[in-house]
Amino acid sequence: MRSSSNPAFRNLPKGGTQTHGQYGPPVGFNQPQGGVPGYGPGQVSANEGDRPMTVDDVVVKTGISLGVTLLVGIVTAIWAQNALTDTGSLPGALIGAMLGGLVVGLVISLVIIFKQKASAPLTLVYSAAEGLFLGALSGVFEVIYPGIALQAIIGTMGVFIGMLVVYKTGAVKVTPKLTKWIVGAVVGVAILMLFNLISAVAFGFNPLRDGGPIAIIFSIVCIGIAAFSFLLDFDQADRMIREGVPSKWAWYVAFGLMTTLVWLYLEILRLLSYLRE
């Protein structure tokens, strides 16, 4: 299995060697008729007590996770806008909600990634925490730049759907070379963000996030990398389905896709704010 730029999709379990029984072989996102050379039919051990994962499992679990994030985010954003309008400044509760959502989401993501945990409760709590963080942040941006949150949501969904179409049609093939390029780009961006954070805290120099030309270019690059990361995410999910990974791992796939969606939304939100200044 090829590695992914998304750490959630690394070192995942593979299917067993037993037959599918009543469920039949799973079908991937982009699986041609007659199976995939080199993989054979997806299989799972009988003692795992779980059927093989399907595309429907991934779609449903991802939809539920995204729905939780949107619901919590919308409620939090409305509360944040009302609080800012009433007080004219950032109330402590709003700052606490934003930081709390960020920290909880980070901790849970680390638990899921490093423990390779396929868990519906953890994935949903992560989604709720990200909704709290993104909702509070979006509410603040919405007061400053009216309509920006909806534009960012539409942009994020547009990129997601567009990259799914690109993957389904095979317009861009997920090759080992492309995978290495995207993984390298993600690592490079992460290092730049870390150095920029240190520079901002220590010296007040924040070129990647100050809204200037460099910040605009950086956000565009991040959006492009996040968009191409979806191709690797789709490919990894596809391979898990073909290999007959148990259906419970659809929650892990949903978590992985959510991490990319969150990153993409944040970068689009930032870019839109820069362009409004």
Mean pLDDT equals: 84
Radius of gyration: 20 Å
SS summary, helix count:
7
Strand content: under 5%
Shape label: globular
**The number of domains:** 1
Could you spell the SSE succession in H and E letters? HHHHHHH
Q: What is the helix fraction of residues, given as a range? A: 55-70%
Keywords: Membrane, Transmembrane, Transmembrane helix
InterPro entries: BaxI_1-like (IPR010539)
Transmembrane segments: 58-80, 92-114, 121-141, 147-169, 181-205, 211-234, 249-266
Protein name: Bax inhibitor-1/YccA family protein
Name the descriptors.
68% helix; mainly alpha; 277 residues
Give a structural overview:
The protein has 277 residues and is mostly helical. The protein has one domain. The chain is 68% helix and 0% strand. Helix 1 runs parallel beside helix 3 and helix 5 packs across helix 6. It comes from Amycolatopsis heterodermiae. This is Bax inhibitor-1/YccA family protein.
Itemize the secondary structure elements and their pairings.
Blueprint: H1 55-87, H2 92-115, H3 120-144, H4 148-169, H5 176-203, H6 213-242, H7 250-276
Helix pairs in contact: 1-3, 1-7, 2-3, 3-7, 4-6, 4-7, 5-6, 6-7
